[in-house]
Amino acid sequence: MSASNRTLSWFEASARQRLAAVVDPGSFIEAVGPEQREVSPHLALFDLPEQFDDGMIVGRAAMTGRPVLAAAQEGRFMGGAFGEVHGAKLVGLLRSATALKRDVVILFDTGGVRLQEANAGELAIAEIMRALIEARLAGARVVGLVGGRAGCYGGGGLIAGCCSTLIVSEQGRISVSGPEVIETNRGIEEFDSRDRAFVWRTMGGKHRYLIGGVDVFVDDEASAFRDAALAAIAQPAGLDLDRLVAEQRRLARRLQRFGAARDGKEIWSDLGIADPAGIPGLGTQVFLHLADGRRETADDAR
Prior knowledge:
By secondary structure, the chain is of the alpha/beta class. The protein has helices spanning 3-6, 15-22, 84-100, 118-137, 155-161, 179-186, 196-203, 205-210, 222-233, 241-258, 264-270, 284-291, and strands spanning 29-31, 56-63, 66-73, 104-108, 142-146, 152-153, 165-169, 174-175, 216-218. The strands form 2 sheets. It has a 7-stranded mixed β-sheet, sandwiched between helices. α3 (84-100) runs parallel beside α4 and α4 (118-137) packs parallel to α5. It starts with a helix and ends in an 11-residue tail after the last helix.
């Protein structure tokens, strides 16, 4: 990895920059690339701009010589939202993982499903989740990385929850419903989407790590994401009913314990953190040290 890639900000980088920083230099071979011009068949109907990769980059690569399949969403194109072509490319990649029994790395950066392709996008989410589970049942590890500008919302949040391992930075956000969606449907009293601090205390990387919603918390650097992804794909693969049951029990315990909380700070206090208000200002290593032994754990459910 070059010196520039080592210090590359994951949050600021484009999808192609992130992908180049995660895999071995020169190893990525793109499938259905921009030169094939597989654009969305729907956007032109709404007089909306198209992108020749439709905001989804997929292909094969290597990580320290180990063959992997990789996908990256471009959050700068329509917020990385899922449409027909965008979703089909990821489905195809995951089906290849099943056939090849090859690990997958997905770089999420999405606001959910495109409103202009709602039905096709929703169908794509379901197909992706099925293909992801089938890949895991076939023995592949599926590692998700979250730390981009768009976050990981809507159907993207559901897909991320199906991954073998989730890696997040402080800048990452994960939720099924985005802040604006909650505010629109439940009112500003329920969720003020303009309160950025509250958004991060509810959906941000530190909070998701503390409640066991993600497995690894890293700095906002491409090298940190790469190292964490390498460690994740080195772990034993597997998915069975016992893991799913254990995860469901953990989620039920979480809801019972924290269901009445109105703010992340209340949950952090319940976890035994003496100064919950200070969590957002902590550096990565100090935060990880504080979280050790206090965070909710997945009990190896994933």
